[in-house]
Amino acid sequence: GAGVSQSPSNKVTEKGKDVELRCDPISGHTALYWYRQSLGQGLEFLIYFQGNSAPDKSGLPSDRFSAERTGGSVSTLTIQRTQQEDSAVYLCASSQGLSGANVLTFGAGSRLTVL
Amino acid sequence: SQQGEEDPQALSIQEGENATMNCSYKTSINNLQWYRQNSGRGLVHLILIRSNEREKHSGRLRVTLDTSKKSSSLLITASRAADTASYFCAPRDGGSQGNLIFGKGTKLSVKP
After folding, report:
1. B96 to chain A: nearest residue by CA?
2. Residue B110, beta-bridge partner list
3. Which of A27, A69, B22, B94 is least buried, going by the fewest C-beta atoms within 10 A?
4. B-contacting residues in A 18-37 (Cβ below 8 Å)
5. CA separation for the pair A104, A4 (Å, rounded)
6. Do B44 and A91 touch (CB under 8 A)?
7. Cβ(B85)–Cβ(B37) below 8 Å
8. Contact A102 B101 (CB under 8 A)
């Protein structure tokens, strides 16, 4: 597509429920990034996918968080047994990855509220 | 991957004034990128400066890079209320691949 698409744009869930957030990167972009931003804070890196390489999961805050990228395109970030501190905006970005300056294009984000 | 540190954390100016934000980093880079974020949503890429460049312009934006001091600055000239946003720098390590880590940003407020 023309841009990075994220869904849902807003999600309200109850503590303890699982949530899935979806990211559709720009077609042809081999690199995909997930970040988290709590209210008034900077961006916290979560996970990075590059082509067929093993993802860099070093930013995932706990084993309740996982992400996959199927077919080198769409990515899903899953948060199990959500906690109130998981409330944040989850941002996805993609870039060309292997060449060029690797400028990131961001989606509009998914705002998660855990009650 | 390394994180850039923006300074100041917050900046408040009047419309028409210039705004200068700084970024420091720790190790050698391939390039350094500046992004803007409005209203807590997605970031937008503003400008990229390569390690062999010292200055770059884009409209009212001017970015400088001093690799000896491991620092960069973003200057917005003749600021407008619409420039109100958070600004982030992101140093890209050598090889231009790999992760991109963002700092806490500079929150700019331009008052009409």
Report:
1. A101
2. B13
3. A27
4. 31, 33, 35, 37
5. 10
6. no
7. yes
8. no
Task: Find the CB nearest A108 among B42, B97, B104.
Answer: B42
Residues 6+ apart with CB under 8 A from A61: A44, A46
Taking an 8 Å Cβ-Cβ cutoff, which residues of chain B contact chain A?
A: 31, 33, 35, 40-45, 48, 50, 88, 90, 92, 96-105
Omega before residue B8 within 30° of 0, cis: yes
pLDDT per residue as tens digits for the range A13-56: 999 999 999 999 999 898 999 999 998 888 999 999 988 888 99
Q: What angle do CA B20, B24, B28 make, to 5 degrees?
A: 135
B41, A109: Cβ pair inside 8 Å?
yes
| First-last CA distance in chain B | 39
Could you read off the pLDDT tens digit of each residue along chain B, which spans 112 residues?
788 899 999 999 999 999 999 999 998 888 999 999 997 678 999 999 999 999 999 999 999 999 999 999 999 999 999 999 999 999 988 654 567 888 899 999 999 9
CA distances from A8 to A53, B91, B109 (A): 27, 30, 30
| B90 contacts on A by Cβ (under 8 Å) | 104
